[in-house]
From TrEMBL:
Known role: Acts on leucine, isoleucine and valine.
Biological process (GO), any one: amino acid biosynthetic process
GO MF term set: branched-chain-amino-acid transaminase activity
Entry keyword annotation includes Hydrolase: no
Pfam annotation, one family: Aminotran_4
Family assignment from sequence similarity: Belongs to the class-IV pyridoxal-phosphate-dependent aminotransferase family.
Amino-acid biosynthesis is among the record's keywords: yes
Cofactors named for this entry: pyridoxal 5'-phosphate
EC number: 2.6.1.42
Protein name, UniProt field: Probable branched-chain-amino-acid aminotransferase
InterPro entries tied to this protein: Aminotrans_IV, Aminotrans_IV_CS, Aminotransferase-like, BCAT-like_C, BCAT-like_N, Class-IV_PLP-Dep_Aminotrnsfr
Record lineage: Bacteria, Pseudomonadati, Pseudomonadota, Alphaproteobacteria, Rhodobacterales
Length: 286
């Protein structure tokens, strides 16, 4: 069965959906996106994703083509139309297709922004990565300076994943000025003496929606949290490590640059946080 996707007001079979070759998302990576996970056919933390989307749009002076309530309705329609029980909804808004290629932003009154959305069905709870943990390498963070805006400029993260694959591991943690920023598509954490350490928010990292939820739940569960930079050396000497994102929830990291953490299996803090996060998010899903 062909997937039903959403393009600028229409629900269409995926092979009939079209975006102009002049679309600025395609020509300039002039677009923002969100990935919202689905459990039991319901959206996890839609409000968080909608709030970050509005912020990303605002930072780039880009118009939202629909209201956040309409966006929620489209998310729900797509989940229903495609019978998604577990997986995610991808959303992308670009500055639209101007008449010609021009670096200058087009007048939004004449060039409406483009909105596309699609679903991906995928088992998220019973993932192999959650059971065994993932291995990462460290790479230089050479991305642009506004990583707090969730733009579709994902070439370097994609290259990072390929570097990891070539090294025989699962992902890469990026390092800038001697400290870890984040994973290629997730936020990075270490645990030492029971304390959860993760980089503080700023323009250097994406403000993960899962990160915010997990840190809140950790604090509510009386776990100690410290938001500060850490080096790869400190990470290698940690008791455990993990990553968070909408599509992986909390996933343990068991090795960094070939150095096993603890006994090389998922640690207790990461396992517990994953459980708490999935339980709580399920209860609050829309
Ligand atoms: N990536 N950092 C980066 C660079 C990311 O791309 C992501 C998410 C995160 C985690 O954010 P959140 O918890 O809101 O998903 C952190 C998504 C899942 C992706 O690109 O597929």
């Amino acid at each position: 069965m062909s997937r039903i996707v959403y393009v600028n007001g229409e629900y269409l079979p995926e092979d009939q959906a079209r975006v102009s070759i002049f679309d600025r998302g395609f020509l300039f990576a002039d677009g923002v996106y969100e990935v919202t996970s689905v459990l039991d056919g319901k959206l996890i933390d839609f409000q968080g994703h909608a709030a970050r989307l509005e912020r990303s749009l605002g930072e780039l002076d880009m118009a939202a083509p629909v209201t956040m309530d309409e966006l929620l309705a489209i998310h729900r329609d797509l989940v229903k139309l495609n019978n998604v029980e577990e997986g995610m909804v991808y959303l992308q808004i670009t500055r639209g297709a101007a008449a010609d290629r021009d670096f200058v932003f087009p007048d939004p009154a004449a060039t409406p922004s483009t909105l596309v959305m699609f679903t991906q069905s995928k088992g998220l709870i019973d993932s192999a990565a959650a059971k065994t943990g993932i291995k990462v390498i460290s790479i230089d963070d050479i991305r642009w300076g506004r990583r707090d805006i969730k733009t579709v400029q994902l070439l370097y993260p994609s290259m990072g994943k390929m570097m990891a694959k070539k090294a025989g591991v699962d992902d890469a943690w990026m390092v800038e000025d001697g400290v870890v920023t984040e994973g290629t598509s997730n936020n990075a954490y270490i645990v030492k003496g029971g304390k959860i350490i993760t980089r503080h928010l700023g323009t250097e990292i994406l403000h993960g929606i899962t990160r915010a939820a997990v840190l809140k739940m950790a604090r509510e569960s009386q776990m100690e949290v410290e938001e500060r930079p850490f080096t790869i050396e400190e990470a290698k000497a940690a008791d455990e490590a993990f990553v968070t994102s909408a599509s992986t929830f909390v996933t343990p990291v068991v090795a960094i640059d070939g150095v096993a953490l603890g006994d090389g299996t998922p640690g207790p803090v990461a396992r517990r946080l994953r459980e708490i996060y999935i339980d709580e998010s399920r209860k609050a899903a829309l």
